[in-house]
Specification:
The complex is a heterodimer of chains A (about 280) and B (about 100). With about 280 residues, chain A is mostly helical. Chain A is about 75% helix and about 0% strand. The longest helix of chain A has 30 residues. Chain A is elongated, with a radius of gyration of 24 Å. Chain A starts with 7 loop residues before the first helix and ends in an 8-residue tail after the last helix. Chain B is an alpha+beta fold. In chain B, helix 1 crosses helix 2 and helix 1 packs across helix 4. In chain B, strands 1-3-2 form a three-stranded antiparallel beta sheet. Classes of the chains: A mainly alpha (about 280), B alpha+beta (about 100).
């Protein structure tokens, strides 16, 4: 969108201030802010201030573009992503109860490729949900990259373990891996969980002081969503495979968080559809 | 003194005296507050859009000074919200004044 105003510095400022805003709103927001800038400049010119200085001051008065972008990102969202993310959450819920497997392979003979694909689907869905949650958060780019990188590592690691190792039987952790491939698999899977979970907690904590109560609620959900796998990983390495911890954390994650996040997305989708067409 | 947090209330108050576009809203707030308010001006707009999404104000387009502008006016629910928040603020500041022993 650069080059849309006759003022190069303002254009740069507007680019930063509208970063992450849905395409359909960008033009009208740029026009509104440009009008404000021009009004400020006009007032300063009336006071006898030379044009170049007036423009400089008008731009400075607009303030920090990142703060403005953060504000807009808390308010303007692409509606369809919310609906899809809500559905992704519900699908993840089903995945956690192994419902797709029970439906597709009722006798339980999946084969390693099936489980690899299943894990991959779950991680990709989580990936997408996290991406959409990330749209509510401006900045914290490093934390977001770590979360997504961690999920990717988790995906690759789990795939390796499903195809090569035997995770359900005797070898739950890296410390007891029997060969290089298993070791790599564990490293990627558990390292990935560590990174993505820690990243989620950092992200959530970063968003907590948000203006928007919806963003605040999502931040708390994100923090808990990050802590659950972290705690599970810690108990796994310290205490071995303990089904009680596993089920407790699964219950926490599945029955409370996924529906909660799903609801937040649904409400966001519904409210964003009420924009009057001519002003959207 | 959380001025930034009360910007929505001040916006609703300004709009209760008539519709305006963003620049004039800010000017009125600054003049009314005797220059105490000095927020980074760009951040006014996310707040305006948020108020609009919550249905407290509505936007319309109007030609002002020869240019087409986005103007805002208070809605009915905005009026109710303004009354509610104003009453709350008055109760709060009255209580603080009592505690500090100053004149209101």
């Amino acid at each position: 969108m650069t080059g849309s105003t006759p003022y190069a510095n303002l254009d740069r400022w507007l680019d930063q201030a509208t970063r992450g805003v849905p395409r359909r709103r960008v033009d009208s927001i740029r026009a509104e802010l440009t009008a404000h800038f021009e009004d400020t400049t006009a007032d300063l010119l009336e006071q006898g201030i030379p044009p170049a200085t007036a423009q400089q001051r008008a731009l400075a008065a607009l303030g920090d573009p990142q703060a403005v972008a953060r504000g807009f990102n808390g308010v303007h969202h692409s509606p369809h992503h919310y609906l899809v993310a809500a559905l992704a959450c519900l699908l993840l819920l089903l995945e956690n109860f192994d419902l797709p497997q029970r439906f597709l392979m009722p006798d339980g003979t999946g084969g390693s490729i099936f489980y690899a694909a299943d894990h991959a689907l779950t991680t990709l869905l989580t990936f997408y949900v996290v991406l959409v949650m990330g749209r509510l958060v401006v900045g914290h780019h490093a934390a977001k990259k770590i979360v997504l990188g961690g999920l990717l590592a988790n995906l690759v690691g789990a795939a390796i373990l499903d195809l090569v190792g035997d995770t359900w039987a005797t070898v739950p952790t890296l410390l007891k891996a029997s060969n290089g491939a298993e070791g790599l698999g564990f490293l990627l899977r558990d390292g990935g969980i560590l990174a993505s979970s820690a990243g989620l907690v950092v992200l959530g904590v970063g968003v907590l002081p948000a203006l928007n109560p919806r963003a605040k609620g999502l931040a708390i959900a994100v923090i808990i969503e990050g802590m659950a796998p972290l705690l599970y990983l810690i108990t796994l390495y310290l205490d071995g495979r303990n089904f009680l911890y596993f089920f407790l954390l699964l219950a926490l994650n599945t029955m409370i968080l996924l529906p909660a996040i799903s609801l937040v997305f649904m409400r966001a989708w519904i409210s964003s559809r009420h924009l009057p067409a001519q002003l959207a | 003194m959380n001025i930034k947090g009360n910007l929505p209330l001040l916006i609703l108050h300004v709009l209760s005296t008539g519709p305006r576009h963003g620049y004039t809203i800010l000017k009125d707030i600054k003049q009314g507050s005797e220059g105490v308010l000095r927020a980074s001006e760009g951040t006014l707009y996310p707040i305006l859009h948020d108020l609009e999404q919550r249905g407290l104000i509505e936007a319309f387009e109007e030609t002002v000074n020869g240019r087409l502008r986005r103007c805002y006016r208070l809605t009915e629910s905005g009026q109710r919200e303004l009354a509610r928040q104003t009453a709350e603020w008055q109760r709060f500041s009255h209580a603080v004044n009592l505690l500090l022993g100053g004149a209101s």
